[in-house]
Design a protein that fits this description.
The chain is of the alpha+beta class. It is about 35% helix and about 25% strand. A hairpin with a 4-residue loop joins strand 10 and strand 11.
Length: about 400
């Protein structure tokens, strides 16, 4: 190749580099100068330059979740369109399934069935707590995560799902009909010394009606004092909490609130109340309406708070649907106790009587496998109420 040809080749190559740089600059200028947001710019870059296939639904879900997480508010979170129906079911305390509570085994070989809803479809089919779920809808449960197994089990009401369990080493197979399962919110139980125990799972749909019914049934059975157990209660609707506090407390303020618009409000109780010795059990998993319930009962001196220090959640959330069916559960205001305390800023509530438990006992309480007579926090509450009555 002569010198002239080499020079021409060099010039053309140099021009090609310059052209590539100019085009890249133009693309960058177009993206940043278009006025669109960073996420739209990033999407455009990926659309134009990424060599692989993109699942944009998954990418947008991840981006939305990360954006909400970056707010630094543990109570705000993103809900994908796929998960929204489950979110609504939990608030309604009802879902379509077979009525089992499962826990993944440490070795990943399946799922321990911790609880079976009495008279639910799994119960009627013969599945019992203590069985090990090893197969669902024809697929081995080994190595699956909990959500995947739940998705296999749940489905359209009236259809059937095949499941297999191990019971004392024997494999048993069942074809179980999917039904709407309504989970109990509040249950009552008589303890020793005429003390009634009301266990409240959450403050979602039906909480007030079931809690009141449990209280009235215990009173009919001769209860002279009451324990309200809101340990491991994640909260729920403020309206359910308010109705229960109104039923229990004398006349006065139940809570005050401040919205993101700066609008203040308050909710009050009437003069009708329930007058007898009471205690409220709380722990680190008593969140939102559950710990607020304890805080208000404490401020009114209407109940002795027993257990562990709560976490502190004094912000309330609104669930806002987005155009694709997803949603964001966003903190949009603050709650204050009657004396003006915000539980987020205060870091939760301290029990009047602290009773700490070890991890094994905590786990047994969480899964409901510890009888009341062996539960140190319940027994301490019973002792306090018996002393106050005497």
């Amino acid at each position: 190749m002569d010198q002239k040809s080499k020079w021409l080749k060099f010039v053309l190559r140099s021009l090609s580099y310059v052209l590539v740089a100019v085009l890249a600059s133009l693309v960058t200028f177009a993206l940043w100068g278009s006025g669109s947001g960073k996420l739209q710019q990033l999407q455009s870059v990926i659309d134009q330059k990424f060599i692989g296939q993109v699942d944009w639904v998954a990418a947008e879900d991840a981006a939305a979740a990360a954006m909400v997480e970056a707010l630094g508010d543990r109570w705000s979170y993103y809900i994908s369109a796929k998960d929204y129906a489950d979110f609504e079911e939990r608030k309604d305390n009802a879902f379509v399934g077979i009525g089992i509570t499962i826990l993944q085994r440490e070795d990943g070989t399946g799922f321990d069935i911790m609880e079976v809803t009495k008279d639910g479809s799994a119960w009627n089919a013969g599945i019992r707590a203590g069985d090990i779920l090893v197969e669902a809808a024809g697929q081995s449960a080994e190595g699956m995560d909990t959500n995947t197994v739940k998705d296999l089990i749940r489905g359209k009401e009236g259809t059937k799902v095949d499941v297999a369990v191990l019971r004392e080493g024997e494999r048993l197979s069942f074809a179980v009909e999917r039904q709407q399962i309504r989970t109990p919110v509040a249950t009552g139980q008589m303890l020793q010394n005429n003390v009634g125990l009301v266990t409240i799972e959450n403050f979602n749909a039906n909480c007030f009606n079931e809690s009141k019914a449990a209280v009235e049934q215990l009173l009919e059975q001769g209860a002279e004092a009451l324990i309200f157990d809101v340990r491991n209660n994640g909260g729920g609707y403020v309206t359910e909490m308010t109705k229960l506090l109104d039923y229990l407390l004398p006349e006065g303020v139940i809570y005050r609130d401040l919205s993101y618009l700066g609008i203040e409000g308050e909710e009050t109780s009437d003069a009708d109340c329930l007058e007898l010795p009471m205690s409220v059990l709380v722990n680190k998993n008593s969140f939102s309406a559950a710990e607020f319930f304890g805080a208000v009962m404490q401020e009114y001196r209407w109940a002795t708070i027993v257990g562990e220090h709560t976490t502190g959640k004094g912000h309330y959330q609104n669930t806002i649907r987005l155009s694709d069916g997803s949603a964001v559960n966003l903190s949009t205001g603050k709650y204050f106790t009657p004396s003006g305390i915000n539980l987020t800023e205060a870091g939760g509530i301290a029990p009047d009587v602290e009773v700490l438990v070890d991890e094994e006992t905590f786990s047994a309480i969480y899964y409901g496998s510890l009888p009341p007579e062996e539960d140190p926090q319940i027994q301490k509450a019973v002792a306090i109420l018996v002393d106050s009555a005497g």
